[in-house]
Amino acid sequence: MHIVCETARLRVRHFTDADTAFIQYLLNEPAFLQYIGDKQVRDTASALSYIQHGPQASYAQHGFGLNLVELKACGTPVGMCGLLQRNELDLPDLGYAFLSAHWRQGYAKEAALAVLDNAREQHGVNQVLGITLPDNIASNHLLTALGFAPHGTIALYGSENNLYLRTLQPR
After folding, report:
1. 79 CB-contact burial (10 Å; exposed 0-12 / middle 13-18 / buried 19+)
2. Is the confidence at residue 171, as pLDDT, over 70?
3. d(CA 140, CA 143)
4. How many CB atoms within 10 Å of residue 92?
5. What does the alpha-carbon distance between residue 149 and residue 152 come to, in Å, rounded to a whole number?
6. Can you give the pLDDT at residue 51?
7. In whole angstroms, how far apart are CA 4 and each of 48, 53, 171?
8. Edge-to-edge strand ranges of the sheet holding 159-167
9. Average pLDDT, the chain
């Protein structure tokens, strides 16, 4: 198991093939389907394919990708957070999704700050984009709370999205 970073409450680690049940559950939550999209992950085989052709392929190609976020105390998975390098974008963007049962506890902000620090320190990333639908109020608020500044809009995957930019400074 490759641990990317840890916080006081969370461990952020690479996805493994054993994380299929969690991925299947997370990617079919109503908020994920509404604000991120339907990844057509309906069974163990499609969840494994998502992990192998998404996060794991990104680790191999870029050294980073979406990671599993789990509670450090008990190992319970609560979400995912990491950087994505999309072909359509020059800079990596911050991706995150958390199970609705774990919203409003500060986990997304805590994990994102640790992931951004890791991106700067381990991968030399200086700027990161944030992309979210205009009606995703919580995600727009989170990006602002993380220090991202509005940077216009961008059309991606058939939707107009708010675009944010953050320059990563050494602490």
Report:
1. buried
2. no
3. 5
4. 21
5. 9
6. 98
7. 21, 19, 18
8. 3-6, 10-14, 66-71, 77-84, 93-98, 127-132, 159-167, 149-156
9. 95
The number of beta carbons lying within 10 Å of the beta carbon of residue 142 is 18
Name the percent of the chain lying above pLDDT 70. 99
Q: How would you write the chain as a 3-class SS string?
A: CCEEEECCCEEEEECCHHHHHHHHHHCCCHHHHHHCCCCCCCCHHHHHHHHHHCHHHHHHHHCCCEEEEEECCCCCEEEEEEEECCCCCCCCEEEEEECHHHCCCCHHHHHHHHHHHHHHHHHCCCEEEEEECCCCHHHHHHHHHCCCEEEEEEEECCEEEEEEEEECCCC
The CA-based dihedral angle spanning residues 36, 38, 44, 47, taken in that order and rounded to the nearest 10 degrees: -40
- The Cβ of residue 52 has, within 10 Å, a number of other Cβ atoms equal to 12
Tens-digit pLDDT profile for residues 33-90: 999 989 999 999 999 999 999 999 999 999 999 999 999 999 999 999 999 999 989 9
**27 token code pair:** 């990617």
- pLDDT level of residue 158 (50, 70, 90 thresholds): confident
pTM metric for this prediction: 0.94
Q: How many CB atoms lie within 10 A of CB 35?
A: 16
Residue of 63, 93, 95, 64 whose CA lies nearest to 79: 95
